Input
Amino acid sequence: MHEETVYEALDHAHGGEGQWAFGTGFDEPLAGVDTTVPAGIDPADLGAYCLMLGDDALVLCQRLTQWVTAAPELEEEVALANCGLDLLGQARLLLARAGSVGVLGRSRALATDSIPDEDALAYFRDADEFRNSLLVEAPNGDFGQTVVRLLVASTWRLALFARLRGSRDPVLAAIAAKGVPELTYHRDHAARWVLRLGDGTPESHRRTQAGVDAVWPLLADLFTATDVETRLTAAGVAVDPADVRDEVRDVLTTVLERATLTVPGWPEEQPSRGRAGRHGPELTALLADLQGLAREHPAATW
Amino acid sequence: MSAPTLDRPAAPDEAALQAQFDATIAADHRIEPRDWMPEAYRSGLVRQIAQHAHSEIIGMQPEGDWLLAAPSLRRKAILLAKVQDEAGHGMYLYSAAETLGADRADLTDKLIERKQKYSSIFNYPTLTYADVGVIGWLVDGAAICNQVPLCRSSYGPYARAMIRVCKEESFHQRQGYELLMTMMRGTDAQRAMVQDAVDRWWAPSLMMFGPPDDDSPNSAQSMKWGVKRHSNDELRQRFVDMTVPQAEVLGVTLPDPELALDPATGRYRFGAIDWTEFKQVIAGKGPCNDERIARRRAARDDNAWVTEAATAYAGKHSR
Amino acid sequence: MSDVTAEGGHGAVPTGPEIPVEPKASTARRDWPLYEVFVRGKRGLNHVHVGSLHAPDDEMAVHAARDLYTRRNEGVSIWVVRAADITASSPDEKDPMFAPSGDKVYRHPTFYEIPDDVPHM
Output
């Protein structure tokens, strides 16, 4: 065997499909997709909506990534990284969509021209310009709280994405269609853990109930439509979050009850603070980690 | 119920088993898990595969330190996929060790208790994002030189795990080199970062191949058994020969004034390696030794309740 | 220089004396059984053994296998089976059970000499 070309030999031995070595594609997210905004849709609203969904994914990815090298088992390192990679992929598509319709906030004034919109938006907006919900920015807590939050976030997002597959914006519909199987997997994964932790040992039950109690109030931030969502729902582009409330509540109740956990009372819903850019100090700290290096070298490309 | 006793051939004696083992090795065939093997072969393999697995798992940390701060979303995705691969590689290797009767939890305990080792290269810190690129290019490049021959290891499960690892590693080295090329086309600060990282990682990368052949007592038996296929110096030379032209394309200077092409052999001569500082790292005085182990210990101890819960649940809901 | 060896993929592993051992923490993980994993690479192929993993139960094992062994879309179907549930032919890979077929060369297509100009053979 010529070892210099061993990869070709290995590739040949496995049918020449090369999927192991080259299967992790990282193409420009919206390359080749017609990004023209359909008639009757306000691009500013569409971009703002994409920021909400994209920021949710980006911030939750960052939280899940904090578990890498710290997870309970190696199997779980790999599983959480998979969820993180899926969410990162969704974030990139959604931020790129926002950029493509010109919603870039102050970021473009700070970022060098040569970096893509997704990076301008991710790295050169301040916390008050982020539109993620408070649910995803809250710190991880222990593993129990982490999987409870992942269950809530993926249940909510899956219910939304399933409906967004019919969005009048073809790009948003395509992003949703790609995301549905990913989110189904995240929800199942989180639910499997909630079952095992809730119905595991007394300690795991206690910890996971504490996780539920910590996460539950954050549901209040999810179900009240902003003006942007109301207008886009009327235009057939977005989904009114109130429309997924019953489904989310049913799924969460079913899982928690099977896990022998107590379902807290539904929190009093209120206009979303996160969607209005009113975030806690946790997001500022998270963004400092995320953005520090990129902002240190504003003229650089990576 | 008892079947009639049949005459069975007598169990072969140890000398016959040894002869069969030797013949399998001599014919360059693979040893498989349930074959008879000399105890020294088995225990040596467990040690080697375990420390290889530990190196993958500890090796997640130097680059993992940049996961939250990767400077573009594309780089973040690449790095997350890479660090995730390293967890996977560790798991493939622990699997191979388990075919020899080892237990992964036990091996992990031994790592945390420092009874088993991992590659010292991962005790160096990653100071800038260029380190992520240089680790891919040089450290993974050196690892590939070591690992490709291991795809032909005499022990079947190890060889098969390494085939999988090597296929996946090819993306690791390429992403590192591509990052460095991008940075070299960038700002002056980025170029300086790349050169600085190369200056720091070059010598440790050469040291990854181990001591010179005339000072490497463990190697002879490993070579005889087909566990190791090439000598340390041979692999080191191959790595240097591969890397120098890549450095030229990149536009960085490898920090060795004696580095020069030998026209007679077509190979590169390089300066003597200074092992003093490296030996400090090996002796546990490296910048990151304690931190690396502490992270694994925390992952195990802080989450023990999760593992116990899953076990308890399985007990309640078993088939 | 015998305090370092180049064994394993990343080389340069110290061989120095052991550092004192601290008391062991909980090892409930030992109770997670070992599963062997089989993946069907694509339709039309057999499931092939690809490795093993630990999981608390069957369901978690399937999902961990999906995460670990099909990260790059290498599979369309996964089997997992507890290693303890596998019955093997004998303690030795080289076994009387397989020796008798070793001389039945007539089972193999290359045993039969066919002229090169016979088509479709």
In short: The helical segments of chain C are 58-69. Chain C touches chain A at residues 29, 41, 53-56, 59-60, 63-64, 67-68, 71-74 (CB under 8 Å).
